[in-house]
Specification:
Elements (H helix, E strand, L loop, with lengths): L6 E2 L9 H7 L9 H13 L1 H4 L6 E4 L2 H10 L7 E6 L2 H13 L2 E6 L8 H11 L5 E5 L1 E2 L4 E2 L2 H11 L4 E5 L18 E5 L10 E6 L1 H9 L9 H8 L10 H17 L1 H21 L3 E2 L10 E5 L3 H15 L1 E2 L1 E2 L9 E4 L6 H19 L6 H10 L4
Helix pairs in contact: 1-10, 2-10, 4-5, 11-13, 11-14, 12-13, 13-14
The protein binds pyridoxal-5'-phosphate.
Amino acid sequence: MKYYHPLLLTPGPTPVPEQILHATQSPMVGHRSSDFEAIAEEAFRALKPIFGAQNDVMILTSSGTSSLEASMLNLANPDDEIVVIVSGAFGNRFKQIAETYYNNVHIFEVEWGKAVNVPDFIDFLKSLNTNITAVYSQYCETSTAVLHPVSELGHALKAYDDTIYFVVDGVSCIGAVDVDLQRDAIDVLISGSQKAIMLPPGLAFVAYNDRAKQRFSEVTTPRFYLDLNKYLKSQSENSTPFTPNVSLFRGVNAYAKLVEEEGFNNVVARHYAIRDSLREALKALELDLLVKDEHASPTVTAFTPKTKDELNFIKNELKNRFAITIAGGQGHLKGEILRIGHMGQISPFDILQVVSALEILLTEFRNESYVGKAITKYMEVVKAYV
Ligand SMILES: Cc1ncc(COP(=O)(O)O)c(C=O)c1O
């Protein structure tokens, strides 16, 4: 059977809604023109509620990693001590960036698939017995599908030492979670365009509070393209320091309109509904979930097939026969887990497609009927939300 509509269920990039695609294809305008100023002004403001930020959100024309790097180079001086929580591949990314530029990097390792234990982390900070400038953590660790308790972490950190900057990488969940810089004690919150914000790849976002903004101007670490002070100065003139991706800026505005139509609270609730329903469906398929319920991300779900052969069969057959793309594991979880992304413009019924395809594939592979088992569980949970 031919499937005419491929379904992209990786944890980024995500399907791009038609309205956004359309906006990105409008005729080009000069980036030093009043036309672009109007687009940029709207985009900087439009992202504030999504990030729970008081200040306009900075937009960089570069991938998400640039915002991870910028959040270090603009907060930490060369001799400062910084702490990175590593709970997966993207914690490792933070670590690699930190070790590229800094000598005093302290790593707090968290077992992959688990969330950071906040009291243990504070004990770790105490044991370092030194002045820490900044702490870096993922919000959703995409490689394991864990959502860390960032608000609890932020508050515990500030209670321990309120001079420490708390930086959160929200690349794979901003747009799908309720976050607020002030309420959650976050100083800098970064993200990228190609995940729950459902744009094509190519933009990075930096939200910050006033304290962080002040710090950006004081730090002496060398940086050029990623000097956030340049972006702040340009932003005050509704502009950017370097040629921006004008098309994607338009996409940001189209995204904001879609969120306004649906209501941001409803967008968040939809992601949680899908998470909860999918988890029940996977359990009905006797697929083990990597993450415990209380730390499961609303944007991506990781599960462990019974064998490597089963894993390969699921991933390949979903793609070849059903035109559904899901993701494998990263780092030492490669070949161990599969991940289904469910963020952006994904409806509960889109996910029903992958659930029913899994029923068919596992019925074949295990020679035991799963038909109707997982979709029943899925519908029982999802019906409470739709
Ligand atoms: C949590 C997280 N941080 C950082 C990145 C890196 O973003 P990019 O690939 O856009 O540079 C990703 C990408 O998947 C991510 O999921």
